[in-house]
Amino acid sequence: MASAIIALGGNVGDVRATFKAAIAETCTLAQARLLARSSDYATPPWGDEQQPPFVNACIEIETGLEPHALLAVLQAVERNFGRDRTVERRWGPRTLDLDLIAYDDLALQTATLRLPHPRVLERAFVLVPLAEIAPQRKIGGCDVKAALASLSSAGIERLPALD
Predict the structure, then answer these.
(1) Active site residue: 37, 48, 85, 97, which one?
(2) 14 belongs to the catalytic site
(3) Which pTM was predicted?
(4) 2-158 sits in which CATH class?
């Protein structure tokens, strides 16, 4: 079994309800066990700043799927929650974004998947929730807490837990 880190994001619809349902569906389809789930965080838009704020979170799962099969599951779950990558603009609004951030300590570069995620250490909106559940996790040779310390987390706010 492998430990996989998945970042969740969205800013269209009831994102927090989408997260709850998408995590359950991901675990079912990936035959995975949820090991950890961060709080949800309100975050400023990144890249395309002319859009509503995002909600971001991270999960850690244990799965027997290999990385490309897990990526296929994540993309299927995105589609099930209304995401259509063929019509959206880069960094634009979306119902659900599921990014495979890390898979054990695997380094992989193919046409469809790079592990660890190539820009994770530059993105506080991923590192803040990830530091909550795995601060000592090494990604690309750097621990999450140390990577976060080098970034600004201005505008990122932890949201209260849902009942």
Answers:
(1) 97
(2) no
(3) 0.95
(4) alpha beta
